[in-house]
Write a structure and sequence with these properties.
- There is one protein chain.
- It is built from 2 helices and 13 strands.
- It is mostly beta strands.
- A hairpin with a 3-residue loop joins strand 4 and strand 5.
- The radius of gyration is 19 Å and the shape is globular.
- The chain starts with 10 loop residues before the first helix and ends in a 6-residue tail after the last strand.
């Protein structure tokens, strides 16, 4: 799982921070920016759910482009190593909770809490297709923590994906498209798809989840700079659960899922100091 990428994405994760950071030369970028991020997103309540979650939020944002610590389009993290072709970082991401009372298939079961994701990610530049576009491979491994009455571990995910990135002159527009797969260990699959005997009903038989493929995902996002401070953006995402290891779970109600969102980012203040 990743705030750039995973399971049941709510607005915090679904509105891409890539829209806030212009992919231009580093010397053109301020060291930090603060502002307001807002928009609406509609996603499946969880992967495979027939219910949807639609959220509209307005939130403050911070972009920081330090040499090691960073908060940008890739989330919050620390860059451990960087060369012309390879980068290794450790990132932190989050997604908002989902109440089981709002999801028919999970009625009477525990809520899905706020999820935090932490772990290393290897980024490999596969090809520079033009001066303003490139192809990249992302290989993240994330530990999943649930924040509900304290912190508890909920397993691990592995999400290799290929990313295409392009930009217009001086970052006037950006576009990215990606395709990848999400694998989970048994614990995170249990979190989403297992039905313990005490929660079994005639319509929802007990089910024991296993580790393996959770979904295959493809998506795209784009942004447009309106003026120096205002940027608008949107995204679409399509997921297939047809090959998921737990596709026979009674909580897996659909073989596909789609998400869509639009938003804006307004910069209120930026540093005079430039990023290195």
């Amino acid at each position: 799982m990743t705030l750039s990428t995973l399971l049941s994405r709510t607005l915090c994760a679904a509105l891409p921070l890539a829209a806030l950071s212009l992919p231009v030369q580093a010397e053109d970028l301020p060291l930090w920016e603060v502002g307001v991020l807002g928009g609406s997103a509609s996603t499946p309540a969880y992967p495979g759910s027939s219910d949807r979650s639609t959220r509209s939020l307005v939130l403050p944002f911070l972009i920081y482009r330090g040499e090691v610590m960073r908060a940008d389009q890739s989330g919050i993290g620390a860059r451990l190593f960087e060369s012309d072709r390879v980068e290794l970082d450790v990132g932190l991401a989050a997604s908002l909770p989902a109440r089981s009372d709002d999801v028919a298939a999970r009625a009477g079961m525990p809520d899905l809490g706020t999820l935090l994701e932490l772990g290393p990610r290897l980024k490999v530049r596969l090809a520079d297709l033009s001066p303003t576009s490139r192809l990249r491979l992302d290989i993240p491994l994330r530990a999943v923590l649930e924040a509900r009455s304290g912190l508890r571990t909920q397993g691990y995910t592995f999400e290799p994906k290929v990313v295409y990135e392009a930009r217009g002159p001086q970052g006037s527009w950006t576009f990215d498209a990606n395709v990848g797969m999400v694998f989970g260990n048994r614990k995170i699959n249990q979190y989403f798809y297992e039905v313990a005997p005490q929660y079994a009903t005639l319509e929802r038989p007990a089910f024991e989840a296993d580790s393996g493929l959770m979904l295959v995902r493809t998506g795209a996002s784009a942004s447009r700079l309106i003026n120096q401070d205002l940027r608008v953006f949107g995204f679409v995402r399509y997921e297939s659960y047809a090959g998921a290891v737990n596709r026979d779970s009674p909580l897996m109600k659909k073989e596909t899922g789609a998400s869509i969102g639009i938003g804006f980012a307004y910069t209120i203040k930026r540093s005079a100091q430039k990023a290195r």
